[in-house]
Design goal:
Layout (H helix, E strand, L loop, with lengths): L4 E5 L5 E7 L2 E8 L10 E10 L4 E5 L6 E4 L31 H4 L5 E8 L8 E3 L4 E2 L3 E4 L5 E3 L6 H14 L5 E4 L8 H24 L4 E4 L4 H9 L6 E4 L2 H14 L7 E3 L6 H4 L2 H9 L2 E3 L5 E6 L3 E7 L11 H23 L3 E6 L6 H15 L6 E3 L7 E6 L6 H5 L15 H15 L7 E6 L1 H8 L3 H11 L2 E6 L8 E6 L14
Parallel strand pairs: 1-14, 6-8, 11-12, 14-15, 18-19, 22-23
Antiparallel strand pairs: 1-2, 2-3, 4-5, 4-7, 4-13, 5-6, 7-8, 9-10, 10-12, 16-17, 17-18, 19-21, 20-21, 22-24
Length: 514
């Protein structure tokens, strides 16, 4: 039977936590202490600017970049009596109605209590809200929203009624709770202890708010290791295994205090090879950074991540179908396999925002529906909200996936030094022709009797060899000799064109590298 485990790698300069479900790497989390995420942190901030045209405000929370606050993310007294929305996710309920004018809600210089809901991404500051939510193991406390909600995944009416009665007994005026899925298997005492802890935590935040001036951090969420364990430790999970004695001891203390029923699941890794190697995780991380992903059948997926959207292209690749199968059946089989793999890769790579999937064209509507349902089912395992459109006749699916942190690619990679992040460089022939056009265009302004060209070795070799006739034509055109020199330190696209007079200073022979 395939294992479901949380693997903690904390013996190095950063912390990495992998969630393996049924033997498959489902999610990977990374936290570097000097760049620790801010999602969940509560700040006392100061409004810097109000932008009526954008219905938003910039707020100084003491971080490098000002945070962004939308009008719809500002709690108001009119947010009123408790709602009975059982059909809720494990977080804030959706706000209804049109947001008030931002200028009537906040003003420059005002100090406000806010929480980060999205880390800074690229050149954007963090996104914040005044709808504070404090997550516990079994419930999420929302001190600024009068709401009671039960996770839609709590299956039985009996459990829903039990949990609702319990929450109603503890819920403070003006505040609310969302009951998480794991509470279905928790006792009343465990749920109540969770609520009592969160109420005390909120009281402590409010006390600190009164004595500190903005901007100031009032509450930092649990670190990565404890947060992942809090949210994922369940009867279905076989174990939590850590490779660091300090983290192992911390996990034991945390679980004994808050999740004592699972204390036996915490283990210390004692293998000789690094823990991520032992569980095959390093290889999966490398695979998740590749542009191309191979399917078991021989088909392929191509992932292209841009600023605005991610495109996923499905190809049959080497898969030619089983004997006796029609082309339509072969294509459908590839698309069905791709739907499963795409859902897994979106989770693992943490790709969010707009995603366009280009499945292989299918002629039959019934097959398009089959692939669509397969993708829907595969996405149900994903905690991030996703909305998908039906497959078009062209095989295209548009979907959105909630993004709260950087993708795996952006966390683990940087811009390519060769292409400056473009994803390509000009070919040697393109650069060679560019040099010759530059000489023809600027010849009248280049001093001396000889024109010298310094270029990347591959470009220089091409100009001396296969493109030497083009160089000779340019020599005739400008009536000047051209010397070509290779420079090992040059970028492929970089070149220098200068003039010189023979006999003045050292002279390199044509073809000699300097």
């Amino acid at each position: 039977m395939a294992q479901s485990v949380i693997v903690v790698n904390a013996d190095g300069p950063d912390k990495r936590v992998a969630l393996i479900e049924n033997g498959i790497l489902s999610e990977l989390y990374l936290e570097r202490e000097r760049a620790r995420g801010t999602v969940g942190n509560v700040y006392k901030g100061r409004v810097l600017r109000v932008l009526p045209g954008m219905q938003a405000a910039f707020v100084d929370i003491g971080e490098d970049k000002a945070a962004f606050l939308y009008a719809g993310d500002i709690a108001r007294p009119s947010d009123g009596p408790p709602t009975e929305g059982d059909e809720t996710d494990e977080g804030l309920p959706r706000r209804g109605g049109k947001a008030a004018d931002i200028a009537t809600l906040v003003r420059p210089g005002q100090e406000i209590l806010v929480q980060v809901v999205k880390d800074p991404i690229s050149n954007k500051g963090a996104r914040i809200t005044t709808y504070i939510s404090l997550p516990g193991r079994n419930v999420v406390f929302m001190p600024t929203v009068s709401h009671i909600g039960i996770s839609r995944r709590v299956g039985t009416d009996r459990d829903r009624r039990r949990l609702r009665r319990l929450v109603e007994q503890v819920r403070p005026p003006g505040g609310g709770f969302v009951v998480r899925t794991v509470a279905e298997n928790a006792s009343n005492g465990q749920v109540r202890a969770d609520m009592d802890y969160l109420l005390k935590l909120w009281a402590n935040i409010k006390a600190n708010e009164r004595i500190h001036r903005a901007p100031v951090l009032l509450y930092r969420d649990l670190d990565l290791v404890l947060r992942v364990v809090r949210d994922n430790l369940s009867p279905e999970l076989d174990s939590v295994i850590a490779d660091d004695r300090v983290q192992f001891d911390r996990l034991q203390r945390f679980v004994n205090a808050f999740l004592p029923d699972y204390a036996s699941k915490i283990e210390l890794y004692e293998g000789r090879e690094p823990i991520f190697d032992g569980y095959g995780i390093e290889a999966e991380i490398d695979r998740a950074l590749e542009r191309q992903v191979s399917l078991k059948s021989g088909g392929t997926l191509i992932f292209d991540q841009g600023e605005a959207l991610t495109a996923v292209d499905v190809n049959t690749g080497k898969f030619v179908g089983a004997k006796g199968k029609t082309l339509e059946e072969t294509i459908t089989q590839t698309n069905l396999e791709a739907a499963d793999e795409i859902a897994e890769q979106l989770r693992l790579r943490n790709l969010g925002g707009l995603v366009i999937i280009d499945f292989i064209d299918m002629d039959r509507e019934s097959n398009r529906r089959k692939v669509y349902r397969k993708l829907q089912d595969a996405l149900r395992k994903d905690r991030a909200k996703a909305h998908i459109t039906k497959i078009s006749e062209m095989g295209l699916v548009e979907m959105t996936r909630k993004r709260t942190r950087e993708s795996l690619q952006r966390m683990l990679t940087g811009s390519c030094s060769a292409c400056n992040g473009k994803g390509y460089t000009k070919s040697t022939a393109t650069v060679a022709y560019e040099i010759l056009r530059h000489i023809r265009r600027e010849a009248a302004h280049i001093p001396g009797d000889v024109i010298t060209v310094a270029a990347h070795p591959e470009v220089a070799d091409l100009m001396r060899g296969a493109e030497s006739s083009a160089v000779d034509e340019t020599v005739k055109r400008v009536q000047r000799a051209i010397e070509i020199h290779a420079r090992k330190g040059f970028h492929m696209e970089h070149f220098e064109v200068k003039g010189k007079t023979p006999g003045r200073g050292p002279r390199a022979k044509d073809g000699e590298d300097e």
